[in-house]
Design a protein that fits this description.
Elements lengths: L12 E6 L2 E6 L8 E5 L3 E3 H7 L4 E5 L2 E4 L11 E2 L5 E6 L2 E6 L8 E4 L3 H8 L14
Parallel strand pairs: 7-10
Antiparallel strand pairs: 1-2, 2-10, 3-9, 4-6, 5-6, 8-9
C-alpha cells in the first residue's frame, strides 16, 4: 500500500520531452545532496510484481517491490543515464531520489537504473543517454 503523504520536495519539477520519451526536469537549481522526489506506488510482493511485469517496478529487496506505474508517481519520469545526476536511496519501504551533483535549471534528472534493468530493458534497444556502460 502506498504512503498517503509522500515526502514533499522543495524543488519545482516538470515533466517534459527527454532523451528517452518523457523525462523529469528541474525548474530551478538543485544542489548536490538535495532531496528531489519520492518514488511512490503500491507495494507488491515480488511474486505479484513478477506476474504484473512492466517498467515501473522498483525492487525494495526483502521480497517487496514498489509499483510506480501510476501517473501520480512523478518520479516514474526520471530516466536512466549511465552517468546520472541523481541517485535513489532506500529507507525501508520508501525510495527517495537525491541529487548526486548540482543540477541546473531545465536539466533532466536521471539515475542509473542498475545492471539488471539495463540488460533487460535498455541494452536490447540501445542506450539513449549519450553514455555507454562498460562490460555489461
Amino acid at each position: 500500500m502506498p504512503y498517503k503523504y509522500p515526502r514533499a520536495s522543495k524543488h519545482s519539477l516538470r515533466v517534459g520531452k527527454g532523451n528517452s520519451g518523457l523525462g523529469l526536469f528541474a525548474n530551478s537549481q538543485i544542489k548536490k545532496g538535495d532531496f528531489i522526489i519520492e518514488y511512490i506506488g503500491p507495494i507488491l510482493r515480488d511474486a505479484e510484481a513478477d506476474k504484473k511485469g512492466g517498467k515501473y517496478l522498483f525492487d525494495l529487496d526483502k521480497g517487496l517491490t514498489i509499483d510506480g506505474a501510476g501517473r501520480d508517481n512523478r518520479a516514474r519520469y526520471v530516466n536512466h543515464s549511465c552517468k546520472p545526476n541523481a541517485e535513489p536511496e532506500l529507507y525501508g519501504k520508501r525510495v527517495f531520489i537525491y541529487a548526486k551533483k548540482n543540477i541546473k535549471p531545465n536539466e533532466e534528472i536521471t539515475y542509473d537504473y542498475g545492471k539488471e534493468y539495463f540488460n533487460d530493458f535498455i541494452k536490447p534497444y540501445g542506450c539513449k543517454c549519450g553514455h555507454h556502460r562498460k562490460k555489461q
